[in-house]
Write a structure and sequence with these properties.
Elements (H helix, E strand, L loop, with lengths): L1 E2 L9 H7 L9 H18 L5 E4 L3 H12 L4 E5 L2 H12 L4 E5 L8 H8 L6 E5 L1 E2 L4 E2 L2 H8 L6 E5 L18 E5 L11 E5 L1 H9 L9 H9 L9 H17 L1 H22 L1 E2 L10 E5 L6 H10 L2 E2 L1 E2 L8 E5 L6 H15 L3
Parallel strand pairs: 1-13, 3-4, 3-5, 5-8, 8-9
Antiparallel strand pairs: 2-10, 6-7, 9-10, 11-12, 12-15, 14-15
Helix pairs in contact: 1-9, 2-9, 5-6, 7-8, 9-10
Length: 353
């Protein structure tokens, strides 16, 4: 089965083999060296000198950690789809004061609208989904980062779950205080692990936080990481695989990897516009996943089922978009010839429905 869903993505055989490395003591020097190596690789992928912490959890765990550790007064939640809405819901259910700034699904945020909100002085943190996986919208991360630099007392927290490793994410240049991601999308690793970078501002906020919980104490995680350790038992199996895969990513080169994703996205968007329509505004379309609007009223259940029988798994619309759109991912280790092969099969299936 070839996975064209927006996570998890296919994993290379040599990376799976690395994951099968026999267990070692997670408190020994070998594990500490593994932690230091993976962390340094992650810093290069994130383009940051900030500490990076490794979390045996999904990225959703780090979303919760972000609001519990870093928000002291009130957070501005930028909502443009299901996963950015989830981050707002996480804040609310944790008793964190949160205001929504929302745009319609399929739209991206205008930096000026965010600036206007921040000028009220109400907020000490902002949450943003760089690449909203549910709608395939890419928010203008660099431009929003420039706005954030005018508000140094506001923590800029960014979900790069479906963009890190596939689209430009440069933590230090973009002024990101907390950048989180999981590993099963553009990073092309098995699910169950996440990572995030932490600026000095984010770490200091975490040190002051009174109700941050125990498992996701970000300052404690950063302190332990400095000595090559984790506060809790980490998934060393994931870390063996990460060391291998992160080396592959860095050998390809980030710019080359971003360009490969961009070209696949252009190919996918051209196909979508010819046969259906794009759900997202074209200027805001993601380079890692495309959301196709079902303008033909196609029976998506039947089409996706037939594609699965042919060895390809595609994604239905997420949440309220189910049946109204479908998603095709072009991320991770996927290559153009594989995308072309899948689209040829999809054209054949559509001709029969």
């Amino acid at each position: 089965m070839k996975l064209f869903i927006p996570g998890p993505t296919d994993v290379r055989e040599d990376v799976l083999a690395a994951m099968a490395t026999p267990p070692i003591s997670h408190r020994g020097e070998e594990a500490a060296e593994l932690t230091r190596t993976v962390t340094q690789q992650a810093q290069r992928i994130m383009r940051t000198a900030h500490p990076v912490v490794l979390s045996t959890s999904s990225a959703t765990g780090l979303m919760e950690a972000a609001v519990r550790n870093v928000v002291e007064r009130r957070v501005l939640s930028l909502v443009c789809g299901a996963f950015s809405d989830r981050w707002n819901e996480i804040a609310v259910t944790n008793g964190v004061e949160s205001d929504r700034l929302e745009v319609p699904w399929g739209k991206a945020f205008e930096p000026a609208a965010i600036e206007e909100k921040l000028r009220t002085g109400r907020y000490d943190a902002v949450t943003l989904a760089h690449n909203e996986t549910s709608t395939a919208v890419q928010n203008p991360l660099a431009a929003i980062g420039e706005v954030m630099k005018s508000f140094p007392d506001v923590a800029f927290m960014v979900d790069t779950v479906s963009s890190l490793g596939g689209m430009p994410v440069e933590v230090d240049r973009m002024g990101i205080d907390l950048c989180l991601a999981s590993v099963q999308k553009c990073l092309a690793l098995p699910p169950g692990f996440a990572l995030c970078s932490l600026s000095p501002k984010a770490i200091e906020r975490s040190r002051r936080a009174q109700r941050k919980g125990w498992y996701f104490d970000l300052a404690k995680m950063a302190d332990k990481a400095a000595s090559g350790q984790a506060p809790i038992t980490p998934s060393l199996s994931h870390m063996f695989a990460m060391r291998k895969q992160f080396g592959i990513i860095l050998e390809e080169g980030l710019e080359a990897r971003w360009e490969r994703h961009r070209k696949m996205a252009e190919r996918m968007r051209a196909w979508a516009k010819e046969r259906f329509a794009l759900f997202a505004d074209e200027a805001a379309c993601s380079d890692t996943v495309t959301c196709v609007k079902n303008t033909r009223g196609t029976n998506l259940g039947a089409v996706l089922g037939e594609m699965r029988r042919r060895g390809y798994q595609l994604g239905n619309g997420y949440g309220k978009l189910k049946g109204e759109a479908f998603r095709i991912a072009h991320m991770g280790e996927r290559r153009m010839d594989e995308l072309d092969g899948m689209l040829a099969e999809l054209d054949d299936v559509l001709s029969r429905h």
